Amino acid sequence: MAPGVLVDETIDRDGLQLEETSDSIDNVNVLNGQLKKQQDWDSTSKFDAEKDKTQFRQYEDACDRVRNFYKEQHTKQTVAYNLKVRNNLKFQKREEMTIWEAMEKLNTLIDESDPDTSLSQIQHLLQSAEAIRKDGKPRWMQLTGLIHDLGKLLFFYGSEGQWDVVGDTFPVGCAFDERIIYPGSFSDNPDIKDPIYNTKYGIYSPGCGLDNIMLSWGHDEYLYNIVKDQSTLPAEALAMIRYHSFYPWHREGAYREFMNEHDEKMLEAVRAFNPYDLYSKSDGLPEIEQLKPYYLELIDEYFPQKVIRW
Ligand SMILES: O[C@H]1[C@H](O)[C@@H](O)[C@H](O)[C@@H](O)[C@H]1O
Ligand SMILES: [Fe+2]
Ligand SMILES: [Fe+2]
């Protein structure tokens, strides 16, 4: 099903929202008695009408840079590595910077895993945010677009390369699903020889909730933790950040057996966000200086303390 057309069980036959479904600003309208057809982050996006979506994420035709990236990532993302990196982070000295400074710092990184853009990160972030804004989506979602890849700063904070920063994510500690891109490239990952990690549920149990699954370490998980602790963004925004690279789940339908009720709701949000991340890569180049005042104000709205610990 295309993003934005997910069936919402809380919408009745006339398309009116029946009950509160999230703690986002959408519910303010519902509570004020102003019934509306859909949550304002979850209606169709401008990209739904465009036909050239098949040009994106063509990994079979991708260059060696992308293939080599995934071979390395799929070999090195093990349970042991994931435990180690999460533990190390607790003892790391954190740099302090505003969101905008972080965007500028990140600008020197060109993502090796991405077959669809060679633009700088600040341009990608502004393209995503602008596409969300132009579609009339809520302010918190525009900000989510603006910051969603800032976790790539991890590259400057003790990463071992790009393989533990960028690229799609997948769970470790259970069998690698065939719906992950280049599924054959896990052949040298030691976890495939582990008698527990290499089973369907591995160290997890069905319905345990994605919160309890260890996703391969990278920019999503890193930024999620920062934004959760240091912003007032709603749960949907946190999910959009945390799971935006989890394509095997939000696009391919894998790992659904681990979901709980909360994850069902979050999946809708992540899917609503995805087109703005992926398809805005073909939009025109944003005018950085011209857009800056608008976004500085938006950042202040949800990051009250301004200076962020990275
Ligand atoms: O190459 C891209 C890029 O690294 C994105 O930031 C990430 O979110 C995607 O999942 C990945 O495929
Ligand atoms: Fe990303
Ligand atoms: Fe992105």
Automatic annotation (TrEMBL):
GO terms for molecular function: inositol oxygenase activity; iron ion binding. It comes from the Eukaryota. Its cofactor is Fe cation. Fe cation binds at residues 124, 148-149, 219, 244, 277. It is found in: Cytoplasm. Keywords: Cytoplasm, Iron, Metal-binding, Oxidoreductase. GO terms for cellular component: cytoplasm. InterPro entries: Inositol_oxygenase (IPR007828). The keyword Magnesium does not apply. The keyword Transferase does not apply. SUPFAM superfamilies: HD-domain/PDEase-like. Its EC number is 1.13.99.1. Binds 2 iron ions per subunit. Substrate binds at residues 57, 111-113, 152, 167-168, 244-245. It catalyses: myo-inositol + O2 = D-glucuronate + H2O + H(+). Pathway: Polyol metabolism; myo-inositol degradation into D-glucuronate; D-glucuronate from myo-inositol: step 1/1. Its main location: cytoplasm. Belongs to the myo-inositol oxygenase family. This is Inositol oxygenase. The lineage of its organism: Eukaryota, Fungi, Dikarya, Ascomycota, Pezizomycotina.
